[in-house]
Design a protein that fits this description.
CATH topology: MetI-like fold
Membrane topology: Multi-pass membrane protein
Strand content: under 5%
Subcellular location: Cell membrane
Main location: membrane
Distance between the termini: 48 Å
CATH class: Mainly Alpha
Mean pLDDT: 88
CATH superfamily: MetI-like
Order of helices and strands: HEEHHHHHHHHHHHHH
Number of strands: 2
Shape: globular
Largest sheet: 2 strands, antiparallel
Strand order of the largest sheet: 1-2
Keywords: Cell membrane, Membrane, Transmembrane, Transmembrane helix, Transport
Number of helices: 14
Low-confidence stretches: none
Oligomer: single chain
InterPro entries: MetI-like, MetI-like_sf
Radius of gyration: 23 Å
Structural class: mainly alpha
CATH architecture: Orthogonal Bundle
Length: 287
């Protein structure tokens, strides 16, 4: 009996940490979402589904989802850039290890540090404005973070710079897992680089491409660090997570913020399910 239960002893530490720091907080968040609470009182007032009704009916809360569209579109550019460089650097090119390091390095940086770096880049008379004046484009300088018409483009571009390295590593690892004999056979048959990508690489990394789309959807909805550090959500850059943070810690509406977090979780799960139905995780064979 003891021998049969022994595997559970090995799983116990991980399960305890998972339950304590994941499932228990999620359960508490779900409980808070049905109450009115400021986070300090010892008592909470039950309000039923009032918090959820407010999330979906108050324009202040659901309009911030539109900001996520900037990051969602930018994530496709991010995937395309990462896939391009992963394919190119999977072949024999000069200084490919150097370029691999350059592409992956931004992802290693702390998100707060990235926010401050690009804050100085985009500020008036900052690095970007100085560079544009140097090359004769001074008349095109803008308030990159102060103009509501372009602020989200600036933030989305920052997000692309930071997270392209993650997709790049995922794609590169998947490409390198494809047996080299397949490439050799394709070259003997006269296949060029485009044919190899279309008939070997793309089918071989389809699962990773599907994973990247899932990460793109969830990441675009959960953007927080970059807009919070660089603009504080001002000038029309407030994302849903920034709105939830401000609702909880600035306006002390923990129940409403918890309802917003639950709604976000359900949306991510729903979109992930839809994506998996459209792009099922089928077995891939290369022949």
């Amino acid at each position: 009996m003891i021998a049969r239960s022994r595997p559970w002893w090995y799983l116990a530490p991980a399960l305890i940490l998972l339950i304590t720091f994941t499932y228990v907080p999620v359960g508490n968040m779900l409980w808070y979402s049905f109450h009115k609470w400021d986070g300090l009182d010892v008592t909470m007032d039950p309000v039923g589904f009032a918090n959820y009704v407010r999330v979906f009916t108050d324009e202040q809360y659901w309009r911030v989802f539109l900001v996520s569209l900037y990051y969602f579109v930018a994530s496709f550019a991010q995937i395309a850039i990462a896939l391009y460089f992963a394919v190119v650097l999977s072949f024999n090119v000069r200084f490919k290890n150097l370029f691999k390091g350059i592409l992956f390095f931004p992802y290693l940086l702390n998100g707060v540090a990235v926010g401050f770096v690009f804050l100085y880049l985009f500020q008036p008379d900052g690095t970007l404005d100085t560079l544009m004046r140097f090359v004769g484009l001074g008349e095109h300088t803008r308030l990159w973070l102060g103009d509501p018409d372009i602020a989200n483009f600036s933030l989305a571009g920052t997000s692309v710079w930071r997270f392209t390295g993650l997709n790049f590593v995922l794609f590169l690892g998947a490409i390198q897992s494809i047996p080299g004999e397949i490439y050799e056979a394709a070259e003997i048959d006269g296949a060029n680089r485009w044919h190899q990508f279309r008939h070997i690489i793309a089918p071989g990394i389809r699962r990773i491409i599907s994973l990247s789309f899932i990460l793109a959807v969830s990441g675009s909805l959960a953007v927080f660090e970059i807009p919070f550090i660089m603009t504080g959500g001002a000038n029309g850059t407030r994302t849903f997570v920034v709105q939830a943070y401000q609702t909880a810690f600035q306006f002390r509406q923990i129940g409403l913020a918890s309802a917003m977090a639950v709604v976000l979780l359900l949306i991510v799960l729903l979109l992930t399910w839809i994506q998996r139905r459209i792009l099922p995780d089928d077995e891939v064979t290369l022949t």
